[in-house]
Write a structure and sequence with these properties.
10 helices; SDR_fam; 42% helix; single chain; alpha/beta; Enoyl-[acyl-carrier-protein] reductase [NADH]; NAD; 7 strands; Rossmann fold; binds nicotinamide-adenine-dinucleotide; EC 1.3.1.9; lipid metabolism; globular
């Protein structure tokens, strides 16, 4: 977030408890979202990748997060233990943030057709798409009868062929479809399920994609607003969807990308 950004404080999340996954460092999108939720009164638990404790604990301390549990989402036993830790501490939860993705570096470059392996494809699908289904089921089981709200993070590489995004684009397409099916199943229980689709942002995940810096620059120059996607905007969208402001919105994929996804071709290209 910009150094001079005044985080909107308030009570939109007062009395709400929930889980935020995917905080790895201060650049993580999950961290921007967690800060904004905490500034609106949310009580948060972090589920983080094992081995990240030294980086995650100081961030947790900064916003008063007292419940932390390590989890690799491909490990069913670790998932059981992590959700139990939150259940023991909170009882019920009102919201869940899924901000997890992974694909082998070798598959995030060059030709999708030539470089995609069975092992890499299934690994990306498992961590980036199936984990959402698994988390949604476990989170919904901890939500009260009044319902709750679940979000995940996706990228426009699911809808269009973006250079080097490759296997991750296919996993994100599965993730977005999973959001719609989960929204259908959980809707009668008052649980809303949505995806936020930011433009490229400077995080660890972006660094794993060949030409990640180019994705940032192109995202900016090809966007309607000619600017980078802001953490403030992404966190604000998450706050809307996770608070009662988001009532009646479910199954959606909301783009927060300075208008990157609406553009056809550029003025220069139009002139030939
Ligand atoms: P990040 O690297 O900070 O976050 C990714 C997180 O996934 C990390 O915290 C990592 O520990 C976690 N993770 C990976 N494998 C895991 C596993 N097996 N078990 C548990 N956790 C695991 O990067 P980010 O950019 O903040 O990514 C968060 C989400 O936002 C991802 O879904 C990403 O695809 C999405 N997204 C990112 C961008 C971008 O440009 N950075 C744009 C749109 C969407």
């Amino acid at each position: 977030m910009a150094d001079d950004y005044q985080m909107p404080t308030g009570t939109l999340m007062k009395g709400k408890k929930g889980i935020v996954t995917g905080v790895a460092n201060h650049q993580s999108i999950a961290w921007g979202i967690a800060r904004q939720l905490a500034a609106q009164g949310a009580e948060i638990a972090f589920l983080h990748l094992p081995g990240m404790e030294r980086r995650v604990q100081p961030l947790a301390d900064e916003i008063g997060v007292k419940v932390l549990a390590p989890v690799d989402v491909t490990d069913d036993g670790a998932m059981d233990a992590a959700f139990q830790t939150v259940k023991d501490a909170f009882g019920q939860i009102d919201f869940f943030v899924h901000a997890i993705a992974f694909a082998n570096k070798d598959e995030l470059k060059g030709s999708f057709v030539d470089n995609t392996t069975r092992e890499g494809f299934l690994r990306a699908m498992n961590i980036s798409a199936f984990s959402f289904v698994d988390c949604a089921r476990r989170a919904a089981a901890m939500m009260p009868e009044t319902g709750g709200s679940i979000i995940t993070l996706t990228y426009m590489g699911s809808e269009r062929a973006i250079p080097n995004y490759n296997t991750m684009g296919v996993a994100k397409a599965a993730l977005e479809a999973a959001v719609r099916y989960a929204a259908r199943d959980l809707g009668p229980k008052g649980i809303r399920v949505n995806a936020v689709s930011p433009g490229a942002m400077r995080t660890l995940s972006l660094a794993g994609i060949q030409g990640g810096r180019g994705m940032l620059a192109k995202g900016r120059s090809l966007s309607a607003m000619k600017e980078d996607t802001s953490m403030e905007g992404v966190a604000g969208c998450a706050l809307w969807l996770l608070s009662d402001l988001g009532k009646s919105t479910t199954g959606e994929c909301i783009h927060v990308d300075a208008g990157f996804h609406i553009m056809g071709f550029t003025e220069d290209e139009a002139e030939g």
